[in-house]
Amino acid sequence: MSENLSLKAFVVLMKASKSIQEKVKKDISDHGMKTSDFAVLEALYHKGRQTVREISQAVLINTGSITYVIDKLETKGYLERSNCQEDRRVVYIQITDQGKQLMDEIFPKHQKVIDQLFADVTDEEKVNLIDILKRAGKQSDTGGQ
């Protein structure tokens, strides 16, 4: 029986993903944060002001849970809300100076951890990996059809 490379690739991807997620979660925890808090701050830090919906889609947290995370971060002074003048249903979230200072301090350290995880992977391999994962993700979005 021949080896099923799709199945093997899937298993390796899942194991690598779990291992990487655990390392990243520990790094974030070492900075005294939860992964969801860091993800929201990181999205605002790099993308600027966003709606709750945009943040939710960017960090893959449902809108019900994201409100709780935003509330906690707002209480800590890391972000603030502002209402959209054109549509009262829309609320913008933006990082505060205090939140930016926090991310200025911890994000470079976090990025080094990520760089270390991929230290044995060449830039060309990273580009190929990104392309492969995007194609696999698109295939799953279309139901494998």
Layout of secondary structure:
Elements: H1 5-30, H2 35-47, E1 50-51, H3 52-59, H4 63-75, E2 79-83, E3 91-95, H5 97-117, H6 123-141
Helix pairs in contact: 1-5, 2-3, 2-4
Protein name: MarR family transcriptional regulator
Organism: Ornithinibacillus caprae
Keywords: DNA-binding, Transcription, Transcription regulation
Explain what this protein looks like in three dimensions.
One of its GO terms (molecular function) is DNA-binding transcription factor activity. One of its GO terms (biological process) is response to stress. Keywords: DNA-binding, Transcription, Transcription regulation. It holds the Pfam family MarR. There is one protein chain. The chain is 69% helix and 8% strand. Strands 1-3-2 form a 3-stranded antiparallel sheet. The protein has one domain (23-136): Winged helix-like DNA-binding domain superfamily/Winged helix DNA-binding domain (Arc Repressor Mutant, subunit A, Orthogonal Bundle), CATH 1.10.10. The chain is globular, with a radius of gyration of 18 Å. It has helices at residues 5-30, 35-47, 52-59, 63-75, 97-117, 123-141, and strands spanning 50-51, 79-83, 91-95. The protein has 6 helices and 3 strands. The chain is mainly alpha-helical and 145 residues long. The mean pLDDT is 91. Strand 2 (79-83) and strand 3 form a beta hairpin.
